[in-house]
Write a structure and sequence with these properties.
194 residues
């Protein structure tokens, strides 16, 4: 059986990958950026055995996408970087890539991407037991997604992602009652997943 932290880390990686994959379908992406999805998939596949190469790939995608004016794809490349930097135990660059992603998401006024970045920032802060900041960012992510749902721009099933991040964070901070509350919220919206 895997140690609890390893198990949680793997679940988190799976969750982020699924969120990213679903978001590709949720947003209209230019024809040019479709080729980026294969490149990003390759970077995800090699990040555990060769994080340096994965980072190089992601940096190249990021730079090329920005040169082509495809800010959305540039942000997706940045969202992958913290996982590769984590393999190198370079957490300061994980923060940097997420903050840069947030800047770009703000620049193109993409609330879905902003919500995704805030969710990942919340999780990253929680790893260092910075509870107040972690939940501040997780709440921002949830609020943005609820607003998008209310405006009819996002299916309410996308709330599951953020509720799951909150549940996981409470569980890791040894607050099982609150973890269960947010896990119950996941199940309340789970049936709606497209």
């Amino acid at each position: 059986m895997l140690p609890f932290k390893t198990y949680t880390y793997r679940l988190f990686n799976i969750f982020v990958f699924l969120t990213w994959a679903i978001s590709l379908n949720a947003n209209e992406i230019q024809q040019d950026s479709l080729s980026y999805s294969d490149i990003l998939k390759n970077a995800r596949e090699i990040r555990y055995r060769d994080p340096d190469t994965a980072i190089t790939i992601l940096q190249n995608v990021h730079e090329e996408a920005l040169q082509k004016g495809d800010t959305v794809s540039a942000v997706y490349a940045l969202l992958e970087m913290p996982f590769s930097y984590g393999q190198r135990v370079d957490y300061s660059k994980s923060y940097d890539s997420l903050w840069h992603a947030l800047f770009l998401a703000d620049d193109v006024n993409n609330d879905f991407l902003r919500a995704t970045v805030y969710g990942l920032l919340g999780r990253l802060y929680s790893f260092y037991k910075r509870k107040e900041q972690a939940f501040e960012y997780l709440q921002i992510s949830l609020d943005i997604r609820k607003k998008l749902v209310k405006e009819g721009l996002l299916d309410r099933a996308y709330l599951v992602d953020t509720y799951y991040l909150m549940s996981s964070t409470y569980r890791e901070l040894d607050e099982p009652k609150m973890a269960k509350v947010y896990l119950d919220s996941c199940f309340a919206y789970y049936e709606d997943v497209p």
